[in-house]
Task: inverse folding
């Protein structure tokens, strides 16, 4: 064994620890990133994607990575910090994309299509089927439009914002999450806005009809028309809503920490 080989063998433990740091942050983010971290994907596939990104980014990030600490507890603390940072970034991107699923729930409620017996891995057991459809559409739009590259760029740039092995500042990270939740809910309401307006007009009409013809069961008579009319409105607005949502998601992703 040459001197160079001996030096490389001595460096392997430190390099392995630095690789684990990168894998912890990237893995935590990939498990939640839109398009790449969907609950429908098998965990093994998401783990393989995380390992692949780690292999690609590790040579670029290596000069700025810290050395391995002397104690075991210090090493575990650094790994926990990296995992928390990755989950935080992935969650922020996921919150932005969840607006379409929540908008689908608003639309389903307006159409009378809610069903508490349909489970969903992301939004809970009472998610209507239309909300799940919108969730699948969100992942497809993110992948088809190439928007998934923006959170990945934010993940790479996050090493300038939060150095490897250090914990997130609690106050700033909490404020960012609260703002992201509010923006996601606001976007969901804007997506369901036309259906909210149509539902209000429809319910006013039903109220007037029930007053004029009280002997007719207005609810049961009008429900098929409400569903068909809602689907017709959805078909007419689908392209415009998709384009609007993609533009809003691009703006939301551009505000991710590390990109500004």
Result:
């Amino acid at each position: 064994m040459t001197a160079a080989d001996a030096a490389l063998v001595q460096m392997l433990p430190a390099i392995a620890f630095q690789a684990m740091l990168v894998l912890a942050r990237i893995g935590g983010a990939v498990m939640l990133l839109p398009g790449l971290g969907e609950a429908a994907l098998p965990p093994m596939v998401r783990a393989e994607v995380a390992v692949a990104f780690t292999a690609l980014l590790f040579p670029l990030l290596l000069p700025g990575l810290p050395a391995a600490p002397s104690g075991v507890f210090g090493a575990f603390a650094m790994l926990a910090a990296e995992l928390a940072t990755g989950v935080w970034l992935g969650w922020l991107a996921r919150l932005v994309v969840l607006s379409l699923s929540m908008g689908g729930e608003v639309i389903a409620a307006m159409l009378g299509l809610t069903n508490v017996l349909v489970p969903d891995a992301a939004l809970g057991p009472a998610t209507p089927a239309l909300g799940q459809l919108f969730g699948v559409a969100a992942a497809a739009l993110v992948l088809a439009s190439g928007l998934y590259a923006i959170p990945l760029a934010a993940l790479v740039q996050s090493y300038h914002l939060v150095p490897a092995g250090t914990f997130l500042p609690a106050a700033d990270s909490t404020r960012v999450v609260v703002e992201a939740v509010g923006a996601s809910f606001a976007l969901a309401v804007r997506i369901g806005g036309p259906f909210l307006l149509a539902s209000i007009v429809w319910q006013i009409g039903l109220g007037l009809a029930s007053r004029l013809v009280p002997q007719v069961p207005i609810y049961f008579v009008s429900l098929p028309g409400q569903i068909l009319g809602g689907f017709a409105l959805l078909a007419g607005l689908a392209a415009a809503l998709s384009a609007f949502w993609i533009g809003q998601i691009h703006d939301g992703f551009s505000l991710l920490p590390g990109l500004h």
The mean pLDDT is 82. The helical segments are 3-30, 43-61, 72-111, 129-145, 149-161, 170-191, 193-212, 218-254. The chain has eight helices and no strands. The radius of gyration is 24 Å.
